[in-house]
Amino acid sequence: MNLMGHHHLCLLGFEGLREEPEFADAYKAFIDDLSDDPDTVIETIYGYDLFCYVCPYWTDEEGRCSTGWVDKIEKDAEVRRLLGVRVGEEHTLEQLQRRIAAAIDEEKFAELCGPGKFECAWYPMGHCLNGLRALRQRFCR
User: Fold this and answer.
1) Does the pLDDT of residue 110 top 90, yes or no?
2) Burial environment of residue 25 by CB neighbours within 10 A (0 to 12, 13 to 18, 19 or more)
């Protein structure tokens, strides 16, 4: 699976989000193909990925994210910096989960996904924050 930097954080809430009708409908094209297998290999990429093309923020007319590419690139760079991953690198899902748990606390997560410059439409649902809490409890004892 190929993911742009900030989409690594989307995997935090995926289990809960897949139960949300709005999310499930938006991502039905590939939702069943996403695996929570810790050995799933994820390559960090620069540019749009499979999440983008079915996201409510995507505009086919303009062929881009309607919330602004510059903000996404900044957010990607910050997430990659925090996780210590580079474009083109591959990591297992568990390796990324461990990095997220160690590097991103609730305050940083709110800065990256909550209200403000990098706001995500799915953030208010709380699934991603719950996923972060579970990861931190699992890996940061």
Assistant:
1) yes
2) exposed
What would the two tokens of residue 60 be?
């086919």
Distance CA 85, CA 105 (A): 18
CB 2 within 8 A of CB 43: yes
DSSP for 33-73 reads G----TT-EEEEESS--TTGGGSTTEETTTTEETT-HHHHH
Residue 64: what are its φ and ψ, rounded to 5°?
Answer: -160, 175
Claim: this prediction has a pTM higher than 0.90:
no
- Indicate the DSSP class of residue 81: H
* Length of the chain in terms of residues written: 141
Structure tokens at 87: 């474009």
> Amino acid identity of 127?
H
Please list the residues that pair with 58 across neighbouring strands.
Answer: 65
